[in-house]
Design a protein that fits this description.
By secondary structure, the chain is of the alpha/beta class. Helix content is 23%, strand content 23%. The chain contains six helices and twelve strands. The chain has a six-stranded mixed β-sheet. It has a six-stranded mixed β-sheet with strand order 5-6-7-8-10-9, covered by helices on one side. The chain is globular, with a radius of gyration of 17 Å. The protein starts with a strand and ends in a 14-residue tail after the last strand. It binds fe (ii) ion (2 copies). The site of one fe (ii) ion (FE2) has 6 residues, from loops.
Length: 274
């Protein structure tokens, strides 16, 4: 199975990258399943239903979120009817929407996808380890699902790596999101789970985490907010992780970071180009 994950889509630049490139990549690489993190798609803060639908139409099978899940108030309402949108699993009970879903891929496989929030340097929530473990117990790899994808939305790489090793061999992919900076540590763990600490963002990297540099610099220098954070709108980079998953056991066989366009060096998975 051919799986592609795309990191946090930031503003118009990020959407432009995904909407123009994803349909081509789906075709060219014959992707079976695509997950896109959309928590910053609407002006950097949350996601509207129209933007969610655009991402689905462009080829996303599931859209994951994070700490910005409900920045757009309408999300509280429409998330209950959009069953391919995930907010973090470990939010308080009774939070609208869902943190995990089982979705049929193009190749007929059933894929369990989860979105979970870390707690280090972030707000207090239910334990992400126990939340993920409960889902994995209810829906085991190759029993309840043919592949299992976990979007670990967290600040600390230690927490992300701990979660990845915690589920090594029980999930197909653990990919980090939230920092908007791609890490160079993509690898297959000893028991077969594909891992990358952060997929990076889809957006304009000539920025501070996708935002115009002026306001972040001002706040660091003066400690006084002067205006709003505005998404940078220069040439966007598409950033993520490509994973080939063994249909027999649901574990990873090959992986590659993906970066194309914009100001970062280009990285492409070469194993699907034949
Ligand atoms: Fe983000
Ligand atoms: Fe985030």
């Amino acid at each position: 199975m051919r799986f592609l994950f795309l990191g946090d889509v930031v503003g118009r630049a990020g959407r432009r990258a995904v909407l123009s490139e994803l349909p081509k990549l789906r075709e060219r690489w014959k992707l079976d399943f695509v997950v896109v993190n959309g928590e910053n798609a609407a002006g950097g803060f949350g996601i509207t239903e129209a933007i969610y639908q655009d991402l689905i139409d462009a080829g996303a099978d599931v859209v994951t979120l994070g700490n910005h899940a409900f920045d757009q108030r309408e999300t509280l309402v429409y998330i209950t009817r959009q069953d391919r949108m995930l907010r973090p699993l470990n939010y308080p009970k009774d939070t609208p929407g869902r943190g995990a879903c089982l979705v049929r891929a193009r190749n007929g496989a059933d894929i369990l996808v989860m979105n979970v929030l870390g707690r280090v340097f972030m707000t207090e929530l239910d334990c992400p380890f126990r939340a993920v473990d409960a889902e994995l117990t209810a829906c085991r790899l190759k029993q309840g699902a043919d592949a299992i994808i976990i979007d670990m939305h967290a600040e600390a790489t230690s927490e992300k790596q701990s979660l990845a090793y915690f589920v090594d061999g029980k999930a197909s992919v653990v990919v980090g999101t939230h920092t908007h900076v791609p890490t160079a540590d993509e690898r297959i763990l000893p028991n077969g789970t594909a891992y990358m600490s952060d997929a990076g963002m889809c957006g304009d990297y000539n920025s501070v985490l996708g935002m115009d540099t002026e306001e972040p610099i001002t706040r660091f220098v003066t400690k006084i907010p002067r205006g709003r954070f505005e998404p940078a709108e220069g040439p966007p980079t598409l950033s993520g992780l490509a994973v080939e998953i063994d249909d027999r056991n649901g574990l990873a066989t090959r992986l590659s970071a993906l970066r194309r366009g914009g100001v970062l060096s280009v990285i492409e998975p070469d194993f699907w180009n034949d």
